[in-house]
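Shipment paperwork, digital attachment
Item: protein structure file
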Amino acid sequence: MQTPDTTLRDMLLRNALRYADEPAFVCGGRSLSHGEFLASAQRLASALHQAGMERQDRVAVLSMNSLELATVYGACELHGFVAATVNFRLAPMEMRHIIEDSGARILIFESVFADQVAAIRAALEGVERFVVVGEALDWAESW
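Attachment content:
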């Protein structure tokens, strides 16, 4: 059986058309339909682009499984950014190495990891913006 050459981006768009009201993700008692997921991913991709991100730019993500994590992946696929995941179980200095090595310009992280990010923030010279999911911080933009 041959399958058409498609990308994950194509799949996201197709699923939003065919299954707009069907659940795409269910996590922690919350859910996103395929239509909602596409809309969220498009909004984030647009916001990242307006922040100066271009195709192939890296977006570091420090998160447990969440709808926001899925949305970051979707936004990256839609606009050609590269998601660079950071294992939340690592020590802050290990996180720093991975983020710097990835060349990430933006770090999106859950507020539960704010202390770890704060400990390495000054050393993350390549990161231009910090975006927090959850409780607002005075040094990071809110999701």
